[in-house]
Design goal:
With 400 residues, the chain is an alpha+beta fold. The protein is 23% helix and 34% strand. The longest helix has 30 residues.
Length: 400
């Protein structure tokens, strides 16, 4: 056994399951008590060879920063850029890890400046299960099993030396984990039907990742938290205001679905007139494990929140807030200029302003002169690349 001062790992050859060395961490690490929250920029299909979107975080200084969408915490040694996205677990690599399974999404993480010191990955284990968590570091067809510096109630913390895909793993277990139930609703007017998709997922799967796969559906925000046991069977009960509905399947075995493709666990076909649904999830003994408030479909069925107002209306309604909170002004100006929606003179006027707030005020002057088309384009950029900010503003509006 070879002892190293910083990082410990078991090196597994691709698909072989044989170990060559193992060591233990000596640095005890420490959790961050109060990391700064940030909403990442969403780069939609940033590269042609990628089929998943990429998150981008421009770190302003050294410190601890927590992503609002994924709950990953980055310990940064200095300012710099971080790029990260969820990728598929390679089944061949998993075959080389006997008796282990993924305990969360596999994140491909990169930082051109090399400014990340530690990573904190969110986990969903309860009780003794969290003590068995390790981190798989996938590189060049090999896997390094990194022993955590610290495992808190919510995160697994590791030192890093090289960046590539990282994901949580642990021995296969039926211990309960923190889980979530996600609901997606869609009206099919031509068939006089509507559809409700129900997902049972580990709690450390980002909701935004699932939403991206169901863009034509309305995400219904309701009580979602519950504890579920992997490998155990669960049954869904459904009652509606209209009797003619079908539920498939009636029962399923819960399995960890770590993405990046998320398939619905249950599907309910409803009469389009159904205004409310009551859902209950039972374990094999008939005990209730998840019972949300009655799910109202009338508001969701009218239209998704994205369609309640046009993009131009959204940009107008949130003018003052966007001026204060939106900083990537030149990104928008570049796009509008490339599409001839603003002139070179307008672009230069925006660029010449000393602060992001002044740039936003100048941008709004240009948007006002460009009419609804320009504002719709600005809104489209916000939805594609700054969706977290859009969601925040919409939720604030709903609560007002």
């Amino acid at each position: 056994m070879e002892i190293q001062s910083k990082m410990a790992f078991i090196h597994l050859r691709y698909g072989s399951g044989t170990s060559s060395k193992s060591t233990l961490h000596t640095d005890p690490g420490h959790p961050s008590a109060d990391p700064e929250l940030f909403t990442p920029i969403l780069d939609v299909n940033g590269a042609e060879d990628r089929n998943t979107d990429e998150y981008r975080f421009v770190c302003p200084h050294a410190g601890h920063f927590k992503c609002k969408l994924t709950n990953i915490v980055f310990e940064m040694e200095s300012k710099g850029e971080v790029l990260y996205r969820i990728v598929s677990w390679d089944c061949h690599l998993l075959n080389g890890l006997p008796q282990k399974e993924p305990a969360g999404p596999l994140y491909n993480i990169d930082s051109p400046e090399g400014c990340i010191r530690r990573l904190h990955f969110p986990h969903c284990e309860t009780g003794k299960g969290k003590a068995k968590l390790t981190v798989a570091h996938v590189a060049g067809g090999n896997v390094e099993i990194i022993q955590p510096l610290t495992v808190t109630d919510t995160h697994v913390i590791i030192n890093i030396q090289h960046l590539s895909p990282f994901g949580l793993i642990l021995p296969w277990t039926r211990s309960p984990i923190r889980a979530q139930v996600l609901l997606f609703y869609k009206r099919m007017t031509e068939h006089r039907k509507s559809k409700l998709r129900i997902h049972l997922l580990p709690a450390n799967v980002p909701v935004k990742e699932v939403q991206k796969q169901y863009k034509s559906y309305t995400y219904i925000d309701t009580t979602s938290s519950c504890d579920l046991k992997p490998g155990k069977k669960y049954k869904l009960l459904c009652n509606t205001t209209e009797l003619d509905h079908t539920l498939k399947p009636e029962a399923v075995i819960f399995r960890r679905d770590c993405g990046p493709n998320y398939h619905s666990t249950f599907e309910v076909q409803l009469n389009i007139k159904a205004a409310e649904v009551t859902l209950t999830l039972l374990d094999r003994k008939g005990k209730e494990v998840w019972t949300p408030p009655p799910v109202l479909l009338t508001g969701a069925g009218a239209a998704s929140r994205q369609m309640d107002t046009t993009g131009a209306d959204f940009v107008h309604k949130h003018r003052e807030t966007l001026i204060q909170r939106f900083n990537s002004v030149m990104e928008v100006a570049d796009c509008l200029n490339s599409k001839n929606m603003i002139t070179v003179e307008m672009y230069n006027n925006i660029q010449a302003k000393p602060t992001p707030q002044d740039q936003m005020r100048e941008l709004y002057t240009c948007l006002d002169s460009g009419g609804r088309v320009a504002k719709e384009e600005f809104y489209d950029i916000l939805v594609r690349r700054h969706s977290g900010l859009v969601d925040d503003l919409k939720s604030e509006l709903d609560q007002a």
